[in-house]
Design goal:
The protein has 3 domains: 152 residues, Jelly Rolls, CATH 2.60.120; 143 residues, Jelly Rolls; 64 residues, no CATH class. The chain is 18% helix and 34% strand. The protein is globular and about 65 Å long.
Length: 410
């Protein structure tokens, strides 16, 4: 099974909601008051991207639209987003395309001259490099938030992709509007390059009428400062904590939250120092009142578990917890150690993986999720090495000998 086939479900959730909250002083403008929705940044201080589309009655969809960055490029220091009723989340990505594509990654022609449907998730069919702006709240404050002298660099004329998740519960079509402001610094004022830690756990299962736990840690290979941090879960999320584990193993809790909406943002004015060799571990706890098992995925009927933070200095592979700086798109989220909640040894987990009888990508990922979750927490390192090899090699039985042997022998 190819990496793309094996990981499409796990990776498509890169088109997810980034949650934010304001400082309590901002209010949402009256619907229809277009002039007041969000004014563009003053000349020379940034730019605005605007998307208007039509959402049919009684539907939940995702729409996308391509844009070009200005010829001079952007040094993004902060963002600000407003949207009218019907919009659920807004994300703005930097892509690797040199021209706005007219075919998706499956070779299907798409009219990209205007907003188009991308309900499978933006990265299921399009390439993206990094998140440069985002919000889940129509009146929320900045998510991308750097101090003076720090900015995310966007090349001149870069192709950008806006992704918006809409829910229209009304009996008539709606035409929601989204405006994204990115506030910038001049080239000579940029001292450090910033980024967004946008980490996601693809192994989530919440049993019917039961509970669930998703937990992972991701390494940091260089000293960083974190400006803000926040969680993201869906409505079954009831508990969350993020912890820094320093190189000596000392643990410091940096963020706690029990809400899946109205998510608080923890902010460090001067930046939270995290030393090279540390890991950030986080977990999501769930309670499921439904009569069905809930798995990971981009819809409100699915679940998510994310850690999101503005930080600097940035590395693209660190931003996405990727294993390969030369292949970030193919290895995003895979540098993590996934921490199970069961009792199975690594050898037993390997047997579980070998026994997966998959008839689709969904069933493969669900089977793999069962195996990971049933593993014992102390087996995390060996289990994760094996899973990484499985998801990054076309012939894991032949290519993953050292990882398999370590799993069996430790």
């Amino acid at each position: 099974m190819s990496l793309r086939a094996a990981s499409v479900v796990a990776l498509s959730v890169f088109a997810l909601a980034v949650s934010a909250c304001g400082d309590g002083e901002e209010t949402k403008p009256p619907p229809g008051d277009d002039d007041e929705l969000l004014a563009p940044p003053p000349a020379g201080e940034g730019t605005q991207f605007r998307m208007v589309t039509t959402i049919e009655a009684g539907s939940e969809v995702e729409h996308c639209q391509f844009f070009r960055a200005p010829p001079e490029g952007l040094n993004v220091n902060s963002d600000e987003i407003r949207f009218t009723g019907g919009s659920h989340h807004v994300l703005l990505y930097l892509t690797p395309y040199s021209e706005i594509p007219t075919e998706n990654e499956d070779g299907m022609a798409v009219d990209t001259s205007k907003p188009f449907d991308c309900s499978e998730g933006a990265t299921a069919n399009w390439q993206v490099d990094n998140l440069i702006a985002g919000s889940q709240n129509g009146d929320g404050g900045s998510i991308v938030d750097f101090p003076e002298g720090v900015a995310m660099k966007v090349p001149g004329n870069a192709v950008l992709l806006m992704n918006v998740h809409y829910i229209n519960a009304q009996s008539e079509p709606i035409e929601p509007e989204v405006r994204v402001n990115v506030y910038t610094l001049k080239d000579e004022d940029v001292v450090e390059e910033g980024g967004v830690l946008f980490w996601y756990d693809p192994f989530i299962r919440v049993d019917a009428k039961g509970t669930g736990l998703a937990k992972l840690s991701c390494p940091l290979d260089h000293d960083v400062k974190i400006r803000n941090a926040q969680s993201h879960m869906h409505r079954r999320g009831v508990d969350y904590e993020a912890t820094v584990i320093d190189p000596e193993g000392a643990r410091t809790s940096i963020y706690k939250n029990t809400y899946w909406e109205g998510v608080p943002v923890e902010r460090w004015e001067d930046g939270l120092d995290v030393a090279a060799g540390s890991r950030i571990e986080y977990f999501c706890g769930y309670q499921n009142p439904e009569d069905r098992t809930v798995w990971q995925g981009p819809r409100t009927t699915d679940e998510m578990c994310m850690f999101i933070a503005s930080y600097w200095p940035a590395k693209p592979e660190t931003s996405l917890c990727a294993t390969d700086a030369a292949n970030i798109g193919g290895t995003r989220y895979l540098a993590a150690d996934w921490i199970g909640a069961g009792e199975a040894t690594c050898a037993q987990t390997l047997g579980c993986v070998q026994g997966i009888e998959a008839t689709s990508e969904d069933s493969f990922m669900q089977g793999l999720t069962d195996c990971v979750i049933q593993s014992a927490p102390e087996e995390s390192s060996w289990v994760s090495e094996g899973v990484r090899c499985l998801l990054t090699h076309p012939n894991p039985a032949e290519d993953c000998g050292p990882e398999i042997q370590a799993c069996l022998d430790h």
